[in-house]
Every structure is written in C-alpha cells, then in structure tokens.
Amino acid sequence: MIFSAAKTIMTNRKRLLFIILSALILLPAAGCEDMPPNTVHSIGDVNGKAIGALTGSPSIVLAEELGTALEYGTSEQLMTYLKSGILDCVIMESTAAAELVAETSGVRILSESLLEYDIRFAVAKENAALLRAVNSALAALRDNGVLRGLIGKYFAGRNYTYTPPEDVQKRPGSVTLAVAPENRPFSQKNEEGLFSGLDIDVTQAVCDFLGVGLTILEFDGRDLINAVWLGWADLSLGWVPVEGEDVVDISDAYTTSTQVVIVRR
Length: 265
Fold this sequence. Notes:
- By secondary structure, the chain is of the alpha/beta class.
- It has helices spanning 2-31, 59-66, 75-84, 94-102, 128-143, 146-155, 198-210, 224-229; strands at residues 50-54, 68-72, 89-93, 107-109, 115-124, 174-179, 182-183, 187-189, 195-196, 213-218, 235-238, 248-250, 255-264.
- It has a domain at 116-258: D-Maltodextrin-Binding Protein, domain 2, CATH 3.40.190.10.
- The chain is built from 8 helices and 13 strands.
- A hairpin with a 3-residue loop joins strand 7 and strand 8.
C-alpha cells in the first residue's frame, strides 16, 4: 500500500510538472502572435522607419538610404524582429521575399515595388576586352536558351539542368567574381562555404563559354563596386548604383531584379 501511494504521488507530480512546462512553452508562443500594428502601408511610409535587411545584401544599401538600417544574418531573424515591432519593415529581393512570406504568418508584401533594376556585371574601366567578352557570352547564352533556363529555374521553379559546352577551347587562368553571401536567389553561401545561386550559375556559364575557370570571392554588398574598381576582382554582380558607373563599366543586363517591402499584416 505504501509503495502504491508513493507511486500515485509521483505520477501526480509528473502530471503537474508536465502541465507547468506546457504552459511555459505555450505562453511565449501565444504572446508572439500579439503583434504591434503595422505603420507602413505604402512605399511612401518607408522613409525614416526602422528597416531590416540581410547582412551583406544589396537591400541593406537601400535601407541605409531610406531610414534606420538594421541588418541581420538570417531571414528568420528579420521576421522575428519585424513581428515583434523592433523593425517597421524589411526590404528584400522579390523572389526570396515571396518564399519567406509564404512560410511566415502575420506578414505580407506591399503591392507596390520599391525598386526595379537590371542585373549587370561590373567590369574595371581599363578591362574593355573582358567587358566585350562578357557581353558576347551573354548574347550567346541568350540565343541558345541557357539564360532563359537558368532564370526559369530560380524565378519560376522550373526543372532546368545546365550542361557546359564541350566544343570550347580551354584557356589558362580564371576570372574572379565578387558577390554578396546573402542575396537570394542570386547568391548565397552554404554551411560548407560553397556559393550557389543565379548569379553564380550565370557567371559559370559565361566562363564556360569563354573557356576560363571561375573563382568566387565574398564581399559585403556595399563593396561590390569597390572590389572591381580597386582590382580585387575581375567582375562583380549585384546592384550597381548610378554613381558606380563613374568608376566601373557595366555589361549588358542578363535579367531584372525587384526589391520589395515586407510588413506586418
């Protein structure tokens, strides 16, 4: 009887402990849905606000121009601080933003885009031969459908596999490309330190067409133009602001990118 009573007491204690722990776990989860009201209802409301963007992405440049920029290393952090009210809004590339909003409750994308711009390679002004070669490669990749296939893969989720050409004469050396580590879907870095994304695939296709190797270098989104201007890289991909054209040349566009604003519902 004593053993039975002790067992009953222990069972009740376990049940009580389980109830308490469950309440502690559910309490903050319930609280996080009690979000502050949204204060950004149009693009005009973005000015002067606390704006989040991914560290190293071109979006951070726009955030710095428009308000108080706060940068974070992951999309999850951006959503957490947006929903808590620390951030008034988040600026992000439209394709990546659509994927993030689809899996995050309580947030939406403003219907009006913040900025639309062409994606072009930046090339040093003294390297006119490389600029001509890149433009020639882009024209060929557009004609043979490779650009269309790669863009469809990243922007529309289409099943496309790039196959390098076999009839290109290999040349010694390689081209160095400067990209930002968190600029989805154009460039991102995995846990093993390897880059992937649309910019990477397009540059690889350009290098394959030219018969040269490719070396990828990581730079902050703010330094992509300087990387080429100062000779640290042969090419860079990312947003080229108007003033950047004073110190570098830019290639033909290979696609267009749109920056959008994410807000609380």
